[in-house]
């Protein structure tokens, strides 16, 4: 298992800004004959913030499930980094080689402090109490502190997660993912249920993150997408309908036809 992980990490290789980090080629997923993904091809760059939009049922979650290994496609290729074939790996291996996924509902440890939540997320040994009382190195403490700063929770470090607002819990969970040093972060509807102030802060956090990671955001909130988007991919019936800046996509004839019935 360890050897497999090391080989796969080598296959991911060293990446620099602008290199391709994720490549889906001709990916099809069928459920009882219905194609949730239909020859989907898509590529994401290292240190890019990409927004994925699309109506209900367009295939956004299925695409995330394929990338993280939850769903295996009927056909196609999914390559991470230079040459790591994600279709040959199970979910834990995919997470270990650098793909983190943030689901819509936060799942933080409510009874533990912000600091402890991040500490627990960092450790390889998942046995809860053993992990919590093991001594942290200076480097590990620094990493936790930098992460708390990034997610705007530094002054809350000793507070229990249970007292955080919904938005703060979402940020803490993003922080927990960061403790595993992912190269690619997949974020599902990050601003659902947030206050306007929290939405703005989330945009800042994700933009900041994309300077050191690749970030893929699936979101229905178009105002939010407009505020953060550099490049947008529109999915429709399991394939890419359009891709480009928010302006390009909004002016795209096919998109206008599908969304606005023009
Ligand atoms: N396990 C499954 N079995 C059968 N059909 C499924 C399954 N998962 C997804 N589908 C179907 O595949 C299509 C794509 O679903 P998917 O959840 O990927 O869309 P989505 O773009 O994420 O939608 P939403 O915005 O509503 O979350 C939908 O028509 C859905 O009903």
TrEMBL record:
<dbReference type="Pfam" id="PF12399">
    <property type="entry name" value="BCA_ABC_TP_C"/>
</dbReference>
<dbReference type="InterPro" id="IPR051120">
    <property type="entry name" value="ABC_AA/LPS_Transport"/>
</dbReference>
<dbReference type="InterPro" id="IPR027417">
    <property type="entry name" value="P-loop_NTPase"/>
</dbReference>
<dbReference type="InterPro" id="IPR017781">
    <property type="entry name" value="ABC_transptr_urea_ATP-bd_UrtD"/>
</dbReference>
<dbReference type="InterPro" id="IPR003439">
    <property type="entry name" value="ABC_transporter-like_ATP-bd"/>
</dbReference>
<keyword id="KW-0067">ATP-binding</keyword>
<dbReference type="GO" id="GO:0005886">
    <property type="term" value="C:plasma membrane"/>
</dbReference>
<keyword id="KW-0813">Transport</keyword>
<dbReference type="Pfam" id="PF00005">
    <property type="entry name" value="ABC_tran"/>
</dbReference>
<dbReference type="GO" id="GO:0016887">
    <property type="term" value="F:ATP hydrolysis activity"/>
</dbReference>
<protein>
    <submittedName>
        <fullName>Urea ABC transporter ATP-binding protein UrtD</fullName>
    </submittedName>
</protein>
<dbReference type="InterPro" id="IPR032823">
    <property type="entry name" value="BCA_ABC_TP_C"/>
</dbReference>
<keyword id="KW-0547">Nucleotide-binding</keyword>
<feature type="domain" description="ABC transporter">
    <location>
        <begin position="22"/>
        <end position="262"/>
    </location>
</feature>
<dbReference type="GO" id="GO:0005524">
    <property type="term" value="F:ATP binding"/>
</dbReference>
């Amino acid at each position: 298992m360890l050897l497999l992980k090391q080989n796969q990490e080598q296959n991911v290789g060293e990446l620099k800004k602008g290199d391709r980090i994720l490549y889906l080629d001709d990916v099809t997923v069928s459920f009882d004959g219905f194609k949730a993904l239909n020859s989907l091809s898509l590529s994401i760059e290292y240190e890019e913030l990409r927004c994925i939009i699309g109506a209900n049922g367009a295939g956004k979650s299925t695409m995330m499930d394929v990338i993280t290994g939850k769903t295996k496609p009927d056909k196609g290729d999914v390559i991470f980094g230079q040459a790591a074939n994600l279709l040959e790996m199970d979910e834990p291996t995919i997470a270990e080689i650098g793909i983190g996924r943030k689901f819509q509902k936060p799942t933080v440890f409510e009874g533990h402090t912000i600091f402890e939540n991040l500490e627990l997320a960092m450790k390889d040994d998942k046995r809860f109490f053993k992990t919590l009382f093991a001594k942290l190195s200076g480097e590990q403490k620094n990493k936790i502190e930098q992460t708390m700063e990034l997610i705007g929770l530094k002054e809350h470090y000793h507070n229990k997660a249970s007292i955080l607002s919904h938005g703060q819990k979402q940020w803490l969970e993003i922080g927990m993912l960061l403790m595993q040093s992912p190269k690619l972060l997949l974020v599902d509807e990050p601003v659902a249920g947030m206050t306007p102030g929290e939405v703005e802060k989330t945009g800042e956090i994700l933009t900041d993150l994309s300077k050191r990671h690749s970030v893929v955001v699936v979101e229905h909130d178009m105002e939010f997408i407009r505020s953060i988007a550099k490049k947008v991919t529109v999915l429709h019936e399991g394939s890419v309908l359009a891709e480009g800046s928010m302006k390009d996509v909004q002016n795209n004839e096919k998109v206008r036809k599908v969304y606005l019935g023009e």
